[in-house]
Amino acid sequence: MSQADDQQLIQECLAGQTEAFGQLVLRYQDRLFHAILLMVGSQDDARDLAQEAFIHAYRRLDSFRGDSAFYTWLFRIAVNATISFRRKAARQKASSVETAREATGQEPTDQRADVSPSFQLETNEQQALVQRALKDLSEEFRMALVLTEIEGRSYEEAAEMCDCPIGTIRSRVHRARAELKERLRILLKPEEPE
User: Fold this and answer.
1) Which end of the chain is more exposed for a tag (fewer CB within 10 A), N or C?
2) Using an 8 Å Cβ cutoff, are 113 and 119 in contact?
3) Cα distance between residue 116 and residue 70, in whole Å
4) What is the mean pLDDT of each run of 10 residues along the chain (194 residues)?
């Protein structure tokens, strides 16, 4: 999977051979899905956002200059979609919580199956705690950590994908590790008996 292979598939797609883009999707869909999943925490949302990123990339393929790897360009599209999604979700959640509170006079509760006690018992507790702590990190810190620690990207690649200087990525990773460590320490702290 070299950049030259990707470039050839892109040229074929731009020449009208749309199945070439299908090969790019097959090549990168799992990797992109898992990266997005770590940012949003929901498989359904990650699937939707990955699909949205591929559709956007397909429609804008003629704007791909080839200055970076195709996956880097695609990942940036996915990050932008994820940021928009999280902002929209935060606005909707704030609105729906207020509406439910006004309608019932009570605090709304979360009835989704993925937060039920039986689901929690089925999942790996440590992984759930790490996911929770990771989700609480700021968008910039989480993205830097996911790229370098989970995706195995170099600081240079992460800086390119985040469109920021390499020193900024180093700083974000350092601060993200420290914040994650502190959040996990708090989450793992045994409860004090009353």
Assistant:
1) C
2) yes
3) 40
4) 79 92 94 88 91 94 88 90 82 61 58 50 62 83 87 87 90 92 82 60
Give me the residue spans of the domains in the chain: 1-109, 111-194
CATH number of 1-109: 1.10.1740.10
Are 40 and 15 contacting, i.e. CB atoms less than 8 angstroms apart? no
Structure tokens at 169: 């990525």
User: How much is the pTM?
Assistant: 0.61
Q: Report whether 150 contacts 142 (CB < 8 A).
A: no
* Residue 87 burial (10 A CB sphere; 0-12, 13-18, 19+): exposed
Two tokens at 132? 């929770």
Query: What is the rounded CA–CA span in Å between residue 10 and residue 36?
Result: 23
**CB neighbours (10 Å) of residue 14?**
14
Architecture of domain 111-194: Orthogonal Bundle (1.10)
The confidence score (pLDDT) of residue 104 equals 61
Assigned token pair, 105: 């006079």
Q: What's the rounded Cα separation, in Å, for the pair 22 and 18?
A: 7
Residue for token pair 């009353």: 194
